[in-house]
Amino acid sequence: MKRKIAKLAALTLCCSLLLSACGGTKSGANPSSGASADGKASISWLNILQTPSPPTDTVLSKIEEATNTDIKFSWIPDASKEERLNTSLASGSLADIVTLTILDNSSVRNALKAGVFWDVAPYLDEYPNLAAISQDMRRSASIEGKLYGVPLQKQVARNGVIVRKDWLDKLGLPVPNTTDELMQVAKAFTEQDPDGNGVKDTTGFMDRSDLVFGAFKTLSSYFGTPSVWSVSEDGQVTPEFESEGYIKAMDYMKELYDNGYINQDFAVTAKTDQQQNFAQGKAGIYVGALFDSKNLLNLAKGIQDDMELVMINGITSTGNESDRAIWSTSNGVGGLLAFPKSEVKDEEELKRVLKFVNDLMSEEVYTLMTYGLEDVHYTIDENKAVTIKDTSLWQQEVQPFAGSRPKESGFEIHDSDPLRKEANRLIEENESFAVLNPLYSLESPTNSEQGSELQKMITDATYKYILGKTDLNGFQQAVQNWRKAGGDKIIAEYEAAYKAVYGK
User: Fold this and answer.
1) Cβ atoms 240, 226 nearer than 8 A
2) Which helix (H) or strand (E) holds 58?
3) Which pTM was predicted?
4) Secretion signal: which residues (predicted)?
5) Is the pLDDT of residue 107 over 60?
């Protein structure tokens, strides 16, 4: 009954969206969309607010000056974005630009597929900054082969390994470059008293109960595991957990666990506890986002003041440089800046808005949206390294704009903190060998309805294997159960979708 009601609601919403796409009044938008009295382009923007309060006009006025626009923001708090966006989509209360960060939301996907927003793919190459968006990014941000907005370009692959460099030096160990060397470091950190307190109270890895953002998925990249799915040349789809690399990663984690080289409660440890335990000197290896290094060092102040960290993004299982790989979270797509046809009524208006987004991607505007005004919010040295002058003022007047940046990396200006600078460098380097999910933009109705529930079968079986509660046969039986419960249908749907879009 609930499913029927949900389908009826979706149908009603879709009809409403189609009607709003055909025209009507510009409810909730800037009524003077096009040009303001001073000749500037007027832009209305329905945007997501990821801070407690909206920004003041201090930086906004400078952004308007740099882009020759008058901007009218309508802010949606991040905590209620799903509900508010659903309501805005259903009622047609949109704006020239709508920030869509929840592309897996059914209402958003229905709106995109219903033709509510412009397909911008034919226009991007007319603008230098938009033209620089990679084909991989465009493909990943597309829905059924159509690009219904400018992709919000996030870091493509941010994970790596963070190791206590002071412990390596104390034990005379080099920085590890292979999974075997990393295992030896984990063994030494567990058995050789790296903190020198005469007590066997340290371990190698400090991990948490998260097979994706914890250690497992990053380690599995080093063994050649695909990112969620792989697709053969003839279009056959295979889930990552049926790959050889996935099994090798489970064996690696099992070896860590069996030998005590990882915290024995990792399967039930929260991220906050993981980071606190690492900062307290209970372990020397952390696998996760490389920019977590700065937070770990901050947490260690007053506890482990001698902590020195080294970040590594080039570990392989083979020792071959050509085998470097790291999984990508969402192929670097943080959402879309979408342009509703009900507000942006023709190509002329679309090109006006696209020029504005192109201008947002300049280093000048990126600097305004990231750091604010020089000598007000930050200072900068001759190497374009930035130091924030007044954190509270920056948080109030600048930080709210951060989530609105169409592009977040690749600029010369940078944070002056050495650890953050190095993390950003390594994360940017990751992009060159990131492993993307080839099906990220494609549709599988069964996966949308049952995917999370089915994935629990694989997650449970993976933990059981690592913890020694099942063997390889048991894990493979769980995979077969996944297939029978809906996995085979998901694979068939993805193969059909892949063929429809890519002709294979």
Assistant:
1) yes
2) helix 57-67
3) 0.79
4) 1-21
5) yes
